[in-house]
Amino acid sequence: MSTPDGELSPEEQAIIAEEEAVLRRVLAAVEGARLRSGHRKQETEDLITRLQELRDDAATAAVADLPHLFFQMDQTRALLERQETARLPELGAPYFAHLRVAGTTGDRDYLLGRTSFADVSADVRIIDWRFAPVARVFYLYGEGDSYEEWFGERLSEGTVKVRRLVVIERGLLSRVQIGTRVLVRGPGGVWRRLGTGWGSQLEGGTGTAVRPGQLGVGRGTQQREGALDVTALLDAEQFEAVNVAADQPLLVLGSAGSGKTTVALHRLAKIAFDEAERYPESRMKVIVPEEGLARLSRRLLAPLGLGKVSVETLDSWAALTARVAFGAKALKPWEDTPPLVAKLKRHPALRRALAARLGVLSSSATALPRLRKRLAELFTDRRFLESVVAHSGGDLPSTAVDETVRHTMLQIATPIAHELEGVDPDRLQTLDGKSLESDTPDELAGTVDVEDLPLLLFLRAQAGSLGAVGRLVHVVLDETEDFSLVELFVVGRLLGEARSCTLAGDEMQQTSTSFAGWPAVLAELGIQDAATCRLQVSYRCPAPITALARQVLGTQAPGEPPTAGREGAPVGLHHFPDEAQAWLFIGEALRDLLEREPQASVAVIASGREQARAFHRVISDMSWARLVLEGDFSFEPGVDVTDVDNVKGLEFDYVVIPDATAQAYPAHDEARRRLHIAITRASHQLWLVSAGVRSPLLAGV
Ligand SMILES: Nc1ncnc2c1ncn2[C@@H]1O[C@H](COP(=O)(O)OP(=O)(O)OP(=O)(O)O)[C@@H](O)[C@H]1O
């Protein structure tokens, strides 16, 4: 299957020579434009000084001189406006792809980048991937294909003669990809062709053989630079999705790692670029369930020119929105809601029960104290809660009723501080300086759960408006399967009539049982006609991992398996009699890996927080080991020890699951989805390690 790395053929040498010549031309043309704009800068400064002088003159001039001075000021201003210079491509990496088309007027070269630039005399045309009509030809056709595309009113026909992806680093060409052929510049500037085996595709063929018991395929041997820009890689289906009209709601579905986030964020960039006035960055938002994905999304948005778009987690968005809608001081949010109570408050059955019990409140009934009282009544009403549990389809156990009542009773108790009003504040502190109620159940008194915030907003939004909360012109919801129905309702209200949004999701990755199906999601957002795209190719995970992920899902797996993007290392399964041995083995393997591949990104994904903490102790003395339990990923090389709840939407070169046991992952739908999420974070290699009884989800592997 694999062919060795090789010397370039004469044809490939010619390709490299051609690409280097193109790059030299581009760099010279951009540098020329930069110098010209530098000269213009001096002229601009002179004009500004001149304008200032004229203004000063006008302040003291005789009335008769004013018309003449004003005329001069107008002229200077007009000259200044003409000085405005366009942004120039970055010299370090001015484009990421090369397209040559043969049309009726002969051959023409286009380079795809993030900033348009043309110097026709130097035969340089860099087009912006977001809006240049000819970018369609790049994304939708392959080398040798004939195309027919309408560019506005004009039908354009031709043939794609060259379609190459290029990587330019600090102004130097380092990689050229033509179809599946990859040419890379090696040390000393010697070019070679990478073999087609999976190992060498990853890192260039050296040190990539996988031996059983050894982690690593060579991915982390080099700095991460030199990777192809994902904007250049968008496939035809993804490109069409990115180009769906801005006012059309879009649902992007697909299995793990098929490019849903990639499409959603590129669409945002396209919309912001095409219709900057209607869709200002300040009124667009990305909302995701977890902190880790929020951080990753910010990192992905920056190179797309969307550094100002706000990215929020569901909790921080709800807290901020509630603060604006209800007033900052009125709410004391509680973040440690017991899991069962949180689950009940986010479940679709609660949304339906609320509708049946409360209907739509009148706006006079939505003052915060009244809304809180309403919720408190409901969450202490056993019959109401029993009906929620009864309609939860088995998701909620009956113990959720007692737990919710008990928890709410503590919240509605009067805080000690109120009862002791008038007492000397010094006497209301414990010896260690804390307040009397801290670390006691009384700490809960007067709080609202973070899960209550969307409910309060929902009741208020249903009755009228959310007051000062700003309208949104477009929103991206990622991992939409984890949004509760009430959260979706509130987002819908903030979008107003247009409902311009991109919803990315995969029902196989729901972890919070708040998902009620895509029709319910759209209905709650008030959307009747969403465009839907289903991404088919699994880009992140190699074939062995995609196959295992499907097996783990069991009967929940969707009908059509995704197309595996590439071959890859076999999944490693390691079983030990006891946990100490298993973890020692992982610790050793990680040390060995990081010595060989110091640039690798590795995640040890435990089933829960406590397991992550416990495993972290095994390697905590290593400088590259980080415990990440609040989504605070640094995206630096090294090992993140974390748990399933933290990693949705993320990816790592290597993933180790340290507790693939029957206890952590029993044969049960939610466990299947959780293991599936952990497995599909790996982009190069996966290990499943177990001690005691191995998870039944891995039977036969
Ligand atoms: N057309 C493509 N060609 C090559 N790589 C791609 C392509 N599209 C996306 N990718 C890469 O695939 C990986 C997964 O993409 P992305 O995170 O967008 O997937 P996702 O469907 O949102 O994943 P998840 O379901 O885990 O949230 C990323 O590394 C991304 O850069």
From TrEMBL:
This is UvrD/Rep helicase family protein. The keyword Glycoprotein does not apply. Keywords: ATP-binding, Helicase, Hydrolase, Nucleotide-binding. The keyword tRNA processing does not apply. It comes from Cystobacter fuscus (strain ATCC 25194 / DSM 2262 / NBRC 100088 / M29). It comes from the Bacteria. InterPro entries: DNA_helicase_UvrD/REP, P-loop_NTPase, UvrD-like_ATP-bd, UvrD-like_helicase_C. One of its GO terms (molecular function) is ATP binding.
